[in-house]
Specification:
single chain, alpha+beta, 4-stranded mixed β-sheet, 2 helices, 4 strands, flat
Length: 90
């Protein structure tokens, strides 16, 4: 099996147990080789309520520092969207 197939199987397994709502959205974090992405997802409506990525942070930082900055940015955007509690995806 390749990485993409394994990732899809993991997603299906987790989505069977974890679901986000408007008031408690699912927080999904995806890390690629170069970037990190955070999404706050309402599974009932099928939409993303807030999102942040390392592409928005313009400073040249180490990967761990970049992840911390993306986390802060994601938290700010979530608070602006009125999100106070989340369900963690993984």
């Amino acid at each position: 099996m390749n990485k993409r197939t394994l990732r899809k199987r993991r997603q299906v397994r987790i989505r069977a147990r974890v679901s986000g709502t408007k008031f408690h959205p699912r927080m999904n974090i995806f890390r690629s080789l170069n970037h990190i992405y955070i999404q706050f997802i309402d599974d009932e409506a099928g939409r993303t309520l807030a999102a942040a990525s390392s592409k928005e942070v313009k400073a040249k930082l180490k990967k761990t520092e970049m992840a911390a900055e993306v986390g802060k940015l994601g938290a700010q955007k979530a608070l602006q969207a009125g999100i106070k509690k989340v369900v963690f995806d993984r």
